[in-house]
Amino acid sequence: MSHTSILKIARGFGLKGNERDFFENLVFMNQAGEHEERNHYYQKMISAKGYKIIHKIAQDSYAYFSKWYYPVIREILRFQIDKLTAEKIASLLRPRITVAEARAAVKLLARLDLIRKNGNGIWEQTDQDITTSPEVRSLVVTNFHKEMLQLADAAMDDVPARDRDISALTLSLSRESFPELKSRIIAFRSYAVLGCLRKLYPGCLYR
């Protein structure tokens, strides 16, 4: 759809002001060919006043997956035995983040009900899962993986080999067998990680 067509349709539906701008950005996001362009229009959509009120959780979910250290901090809190300050959390991460970023991360996790304070005043995980609205799911996942790949790239130079594991494999594979390989890799990754965690932390419950 061209910009002229978008305005005609918006006029036909009686859309004006913020509603028209939201519809325009929605169309542009769905027509965008590059991830960065889709992300640009989605950011404009969620900045709209009405959208902020209606889709607050969707925005928080988007923020959660757009920063690599949000899930990491949630996992750190799983194994703490003492109260962790924002300063301590920031110092535990590699690469380092600022104290303000750590404090904002804890605030977001609490707002999403992904962490809570127990009777001793120590942060702990809840059983809540993150979900996203359909229009942002692909953007959220892509943003998250892009950031993690950037960290992996930096780790090859900044992290000693003994403290990381990065490897690659080149092989021939038919299109028909590709889905089965993916499913087996996913299953192996899940069971392998859970097996290691149970061995290292036998007293913890894993889902």
Structural notes for this entry:
- Among the domains are: about 5-55, no CATH class; about 170-205.
- The protein has helices at about 5-10, 15-30, 35-45, 50-55, 55-65, 70-80, 85-90, 100-110, 135-160, 180-200, and strands spanning about 115, 125.
- It has a two-stranded antiparallel ribbon with strand order 1-2.
- The mean pLDDT is about 80.
- It has about 210 residues and is mainly α.
- The protein is extended and about 60 Å long.
- A hairpin with a 5-residue loop joins strand 1 and strand 2.
Compact summary:
With 207 residues, this protein is mostly helical. Helices cover 64% and strands 3% of the residues. The chain has a two-stranded antiparallel sheet with strand order 1-2.
